[in-house]
């Protein structure tokens, strides 16, 4: 059996904000269907790294390839990559003046030129998938944080992405709502979605991660299978980090 080629590949990536170097020599590959969990202290560059993958940030050196597209200045390519890559943020970023179903259909209608009935069918399918079909006609403010985040996941899935990026999707939630969102993410992982998740939910990481990435001060310090990472991290930095959060 030959391994699939990487669907995401970062080679020697550097990123600066003014004089400040946020990423240094990042080398990172994700294969189709792989689930990668990225962790590390606050300010270590986790968000910056995953934001570079869908060009919310521009890298300054090295190369980033996503689904065969080399990320450069070509806006056509950037649009193509954005269609391939869904992203879920800590803040749900739903449109407050649109219903849940309208939040889900606006992308398919505007970007994919789908007709309204087809978009609504798609929206309801993914609302079912995250177990809140009964919330279709409510407004975001009428939902709990956990429900809003599941709508945000469903909204991304409506664009039928090949890759899903998550940036601390449960950090803004009350504790009792975290598990319902993680459960939706586990189900997505089990469906075969390629996922890169920045999270400190190590129970989730143990359940779904094929690979753990630990970052510190803008560098990837350690990449290991979860079994190894949790029981015998190679670096002192990772061991100290795990001691603090576990
Ligand atoms: P993490 O997600 O691991 O907490 P970030 O990727 O958000 O870390 O940030 C990495 C570093 O880059 C931090 O020192 C942060 O202050 C800095 N940084 C992030 N975004 C910006 C920005 N837009 N302008 C200036 N500095 C930034
Ligand atoms: Mg972050």
Q: Tags for this entry?
A:
six-stranded mixed beta sheet; four-stranded antiparallel beta sheet; 9 helices; globular; binds adenosine-5'-diphosphate; binds magnesium ion
Task: Briefly characterize the structure.
The chain has 246 residues and is of the alpha/beta class.
- Average of the residue pLDDT scores: 95
Spatially, the strands of the biggest sheet line up as: 6-7-8-3-9-10
- Shape designation: globular
Annotation field: number of helices: 9
Residue share in helix: 25-40%
Bound molecules: adenosine-5'-diphosphate, magnesium ion
What summary fits the major beta sheet? 6 strands, mixed
Number of strands: 10
Portion in strands: 25-35%
Uncertain runs? none
H and E string: EEEHEEHEHHHEHEHEEHH
| Secondary structure category | alpha/beta
- Taking the alpha carbons of the first and last residues, their distance comes to 37 Å
- How much is the radius of gyration in Å? 18 Å
Explain the layout of strands and helices.
Layout: E1 6-17, E2 20-31, E3 35-39, H1 46-53, E4 61-66, E5 69-70, H2 75-84, E6 85-88, H3 100-110, H4 116-129, H5 145-157, E7 163-167, H6 175-190, E8 194-198, H7 202-208, E9 211-216, E10 219-224, H8 226-231, H9 236-245
Parallel strand pairs: 3-8, 3-9, 6-7, 7-8
Antiparallel strand pairs: 1-2, 1-4, 4-5, 9-10
Helix pairs in contact: 3-4, 3-5, 4-5, 5-6
Bound molecules: adenosine-5'-diphosphate (ADP) and magnesium ion.
Residues 17, 20, 22, 40, 42-48 line the site of adenosine-5'-diphosphate (ADP).
């Amino acid at each position: 059996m030959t391994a699939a080629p990487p669907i995401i590949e970062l080679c020697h990536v550097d990123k600066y904000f003014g004089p400040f170097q946020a990423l240094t020599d990042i080398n990172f590959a994700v294969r189709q269907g792989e689930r990668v969990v990225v962790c590390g202290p606050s300010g270590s560059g986790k968000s910056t790294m995953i934001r570079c993958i869908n060009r919310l940030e521009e890298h300054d050196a090295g190369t980033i390839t996503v689904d065969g597209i080399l990320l450069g200045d070509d806006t056509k390519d950037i649009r193509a990559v954005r269609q391939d890559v869904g992203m879920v943020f800590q803040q749900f970023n739903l449109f407050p003046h649109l219903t849940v179903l309208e939040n889900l259909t606006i992308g398919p209608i505007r970007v994919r030129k789908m007709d309204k009935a087809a978009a609504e069918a798609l929206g309801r399918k993914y609302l079912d998938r995250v177990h809140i079909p009964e919330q279709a006609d409510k407004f975001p403010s009428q939902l709990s944080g956990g429900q809003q985040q599941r709508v945000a996941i469903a909204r991304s899935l409506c664009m039928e992405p090949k890759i899903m990026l998550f940036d601390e999707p449960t950090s803004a939630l009350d504790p009792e709502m975290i598990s319902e969102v993680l459960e939706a993410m586990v189900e997505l992982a089990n469906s075969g979605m390629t996922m890169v998740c920045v999270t400190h939910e190590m129970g989730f990481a143990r359940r779904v991660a094929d690979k753990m990435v630990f970052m510190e001060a803008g560098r990837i310090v350690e990449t290991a299978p979860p079994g190894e990472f949790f029981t015998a991290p190679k670096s002192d930095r990772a061991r100290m980090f795990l001691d603090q959060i576990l």
